[in-house]
Prior knowledge:
Distance between the termini: 10 Å
CATH topology of the largest domain: Rossmann fold
Shape: globular
CATH superfamily of the largest domain: von Willebrand factor, type A domain
Largest sheet: 6 strands, antiparallel
Amino acid sequence: xxxxxxxxxxxxxxxxxxxxxxxxxxxxxxxxxxxxxxxxxxxxxxxxxxxxxxxxxxxxxxxxxxxxxxxxxxxxxxxxxxxxxxxxxxxxxxxxxxxxxxxxxxxxxxxxxxxxxxxxxxxxxxxxxxxxxxxxxxxxxxxxxxxxxxxxxxxxxxxxxxxxxxxxxxxxxxxxxxxxxxxxxxxxxxxxxxxxxxxxxxxxxxxxxxxxxxxxxxxxxxxxxxxxxxxxxxxxxxxxxxxxxxxxxxxxxxxxxxxxxxxxxxxxxxxxxxxxxxxxxxxxxxxxxxxxxxxxxxxxxxxxxxxxxxxxxxxxxxxxxxxxxxxxxxxxxx
Length: 334
């Protein structure tokens, strides 16, 4: 029922009419390739780099999973074979080493998993009127500083969502689209975030959504927890940069923290331009220092929320911390 409600609200937010069938819908569960990104830090908060596939164990509802691919930062990912060894992924339909190898469920192109697809959602409602120019400049600096392998899309919203720049590796296109943004009126943050997630879910590989907002929402039709659940299930981390002070809008602050934590992202509260720049720099560091694995889930009767756990297989695990999304729900259809 939750997915029916979200589908209806999403369609209405996008201006799409819905005609419901009279028959009772038949639900099914479809589990696709799971994309899981996570960071590893030491007890001082420093990123831990250089770990290999054999250093990790992935569990889903305590069921061990077999890694399909493994990547670190923006380096090309590798195929993880059944014996635990690795080799370069396919390029243009052929493996990089030209050796035939059955991988079980079809080959995955390297290009889909090199770099990150970054979706920036910029609040241009009247809540952002005072800091509009400074916020726009901070986003432009962030876009310029992304790794060459990353792609970026820029969306803006007030009452409605506007796709200012489609997903591209051309930084100039993204910055040009951002420059055309204009201040609006009411804020439909969660409607717009849901639509952005829908677009991001269509793109293969690793992706994140970065929300830059003042916080209040006075025009959405969907609840923030429903939006968070969609991001959680799709494996899309949400980073939130709020220009509001935590104690000035505790409701939005609490929601932002919950959305970020439950999807594997982070929430920042940055009222000044300097703090906003620092928040973007922190996000950029996360993207460059994270690990990304994919796997096809092992048989699991659980059609509800499935818990994901990442363990480090070494004595060093006691002093390392893994930050990842807590789990997901298998996709249902109707």
